[in-house]
Amino acid sequence: QITLRESGPTLVKPTQTLTLTCTFSGFSLSSSGVGVGWIRQPPGKALEWLGLIYWDDDKRYSSSLKSRLTITKDTSKDQVVLTLTNVAPVDTATYYCAHRNMGDAFDVWGQGTMVTVSS
Amino acid sequence: DIQLTQSPSSLAASVGDRVTITCRASQTVSVYLHWYQQKPGRAPKLLIYAASTLQTGVPSRFSGSGSGTDFTLTIRSLQPEDFASYFCQQTYSASSFGQGTQVEIK
């Protein structure tokens, strides 16, 4: 059974760096074809794709966030880490990590973690 | 970047109705188009991937069709548990989501 869980701060000040960790089980991020993505959703708004990391360490980022966003993996800990620099109130959202299936969709999602950016 | 436009943004329907939601891409996404259902306070749930493949465990009243730029999600006979928001996602070029369609009770 695949599970994912996001963790990190609930409140971050403007201009600071946000670091979120996705801890997963039930699959290995060193297996061919596997990927983990990050998605966020501001309150009452649509989903926004942030980025994806693949088993071979290839990464894809949203063009609008590319300059501020980094996604890394620690295969030995079964974790994926999202780092977003210079945050602003517009980055307030629920952040989700999700498992990419072989059909290239996100078939299992974490429960999400709400992050508020405010001074 | 590929933009996805869903229509309608919201709709009101009754139990038993046939519901159709469309998703149009600003350029071709081949069949790299997926559909999700989301209920308030919950993470999205995958319904359909690769335009028309039903995710394991999803009721057969859900179906997807389309290729290229135009796609459709159909709910054959709306059930009480189907009142939710629905999002399309493309993974042809990086990825992006549509703005969502909220299905409400009439």
Architecture overview:
The complex is a heterodimer of chains A (119) and B (106). In chain A, 35% of the residues are buried. Chain A is mostly beta strands. Chain A has strands spanning 3-7, 11-12, 18-25, 35-41, 48-54, 59-61, 69-74, 79-84, 93-100, 106-109, 113-117. In chain A, strands 2, 4, 5, 6, 9, 10 and 11 form a seven-stranded mixed beta sheet that branches. Chain A has a four-stranded antiparallel beta sheet with strand order 1-3-8-7, with no helix packed on it. Chain B is mainly beta. Helices cover 0% and strands 50% of the residues of chain B. In chain B, the strands form two sheets. In chain B, strands 2, 4, 5, 6, 9, 10 and 11 form a seven-stranded mixed beta sheet that branches. In chain B, strands 1-3-8-7 form a four-stranded antiparallel beta sheet, with no helix packed on it. Chain B is globular and about 35 Å long. The N and C termini of chain B lie far apart (36 Å). The A-B interface holds A 37, 39, 46-49, 52, 60-64, 96, 98, 101, 103-107, 109-112 and B 1, 32, 34, 36, 38, 43-46, 49-50, 53, 55, 87, 89, 91, 94-100.
Q: What does this entry show, briefly?
A:
The complex is a heterodimer of chains A (119) and B (106). Chain A has 119 residues and is mainly β.
Instruction: Give the helix proportion of chain A (percent range).
Output: under 10%
Annotation, overall tally of beta strands of chain A: 11
Please give the count of helices of chain A.
Answer: 0
Mean pLDDT of chain B: 97
Helix content of chain B: under 10%
Main interface: chain pair and counts: A-B, 24 and 23 residues
- Quaternary: heterodimer
Shape of chain B: globular
Structural class of chain B: mainly beta
Helical run tally of chain B = 0
Regions with little confidence, pLDDT below 50 for 5+ residues of chain A:
none
Radius of gyration of chain B: 13 Å
Q: How much of the polypeptide of chain B forms β-strand, as a percent range? A: over 45%
Instruction: Detail the poorly predicted runs of chain B.
Output: none
Distance between the termini of chain B: 36 Å
Largest sheet report of chain A: 7 strands, mixed
- Secondary structure class of chain A reads mainly beta
Strand content of chain A: over 45%
Q: Number of DSSP strands of chain B?
A: 11
SSE sequence of chain B, one letter per element: EEEEEEEEEEE
Return the string of H and E elements of chain A.
Answer: EEEEEEEEEEE
